[in-house]
């Protein structure tokens, strides 16, 4: 069956003035691509299963298992989910909580995850003096205490870098050299190298490796095997991919996700330092 519904077409969080409303989304029922859009309310994206990457504020964001991506109200954003992704969205009315004014990844405690999941079972127009309203208030108070994490890659608004990023996000196995990419976007290799440093702070090779890490984390979190991800990213061998992953994140993929699961199950509520 062809899926033609976009996730943004079935729920408008701005139709309610409640401080916070939650909505659960199963991407088995919707298109994997969520087009660029914005709303008045801020949005926290949490993954229950599978994985999703978001593009907002000239950055690409990965939503790890025990974190959430926070997008303030009024910021245009899009997303790409794995077919098995199931997400919880928490939409927050501007001024309802002391949350960051810019996009970021927040560490999320098990308690917040459970409260958001419970709130997702409430109607968007829940009574303002009932249990759901009290639950929303506590969830927002706790969310404001969560520390930031770093799971993002700067893309830049420059159209040439955006073209490269869009192409590599769709086909990360493309192993074109910097000279080949420069030719594709009608630049000299030297000019592209200077532009990458100026716009992202990274060389082309380092920037592409960071993009590969984000794609790898998304796919591995969705349940894909290391062998499949290595092939999708164009690595000649699984060992080469694991070596890159370990060098960048300090552990193998298996160790990394085991550590994240252990943190999710045992860590106490993190607080801002």
TrEMBL record:
<dbReference type="InterPro" id="IPR014710">
    <property type="entry name" value="RmlC-like_jellyroll"/>
</dbReference>
<keyword id="KW-0804">Transcription</keyword>
<dbReference type="InterPro" id="IPR009057">
    <property type="entry name" value="Homeodomain-like_sf"/>
</dbReference>
<feature type="domain" description="HTH araC/xylS-type">
    <location>
        <begin position="162"/>
        <end position="259"/>
    </location>
</feature>
<dbReference type="Pfam" id="PF02311">
    <property type="entry name" value="AraC_binding"/>
</dbReference>
<dbReference type="InterPro" id="IPR011051">
    <property type="entry name" value="RmlC_Cupin_sf"/>
</dbReference>
<keyword id="KW-0238">DNA-binding</keyword>
<protein>
    <submittedName>
        <fullName>Helix-turn-helix transcriptional regulator</fullName>
    </submittedName>
</protein>
<dbReference type="InterPro" id="IPR018060">
    <property type="entry name" value="HTH_AraC"/>
</dbReference>
<keyword id="KW-0805">Transcription regulation</keyword>
<dbReference type="Pfam" id="PF12833">
    <property type="entry name" value="HTH_18"/>
</dbReference>
<dbReference type="InterPro" id="IPR003313">
    <property type="entry name" value="AraC-bd"/>
</dbReference>
